Amino acid sequence: MTSLMEQTVLPSGRGSDHAEHLQDLLRLLATPSALTLSDGSGGAELPDHLRRLLHAAVSNLADGTAVTITPHRTQLTTQEAADILGISRPTLIRLLTAGEIASTRPGRHRRIQLADVLAYQERIRDQRRSALIELSAAAEPPTAPDGFVRTR
User: How far apart (Å, rounded) are the C-alpha atoms in residues 78 and 67?
Assistant: First the structure.
């Protein structure tokens, strides 16, 4: 059984050879065609979702940003789900009770599917994005000739 461990990779500042190597990898990972990995004794096709993940990781490393990969179980406890969403456990329980996020109760404890947590997170992001667009569209430009808006 593989243990779940968070792993952080720091960008290497070893010079242009390293940067050039990362750019070569980015070009390979950006191609829409299938990629095959081989070790001499055999090969395997790289699935598209892994290619996209690797492209994002290599792109960030090339930009000088550290990359952390955090594995998650697909079935979460309430505390794990709350941690992913960045909210308190009691707030998550309120969301579960209100039906905002689906959950099951196989025994005494609730379990939440990671896909449901991520879907809720995306819904909230979309709602916030829409609200910001609506607010920015509703803002009136300053009408004073000097460009200042009187607030009092």
Answer: 26
State the number of CA atoms in the 13 A half-sphere of 8 facing the CB. Answer: 3
Percent of the chain residues topping a pLDDT of 90: 40
* Environment class of 58 (CB within 10 Å of its CB; exposed 0-12, middle 13-18, buried 19+): buried
Residue 142 is predicted with a pLDDT of: 55
The neighbouring-strand residues paired with 36 are 45
Torsion, Cα 69 99 94 84, to 10 degrees, reads: 0
Query: What's the token pair of residue 97?
Result: 């009770």
Pairing of strands 67-69, 43-46: unpaired
| Average pLDDT value over all residues in the chain | 86
pLDDT, tens digit (0-9, with 9 covering 90-100), for 98-118 = 999 999 998 899 999 999 999
Could you give the CA distance from residue 57 to residue 67 in angstroms, rounded to a whole number? 6
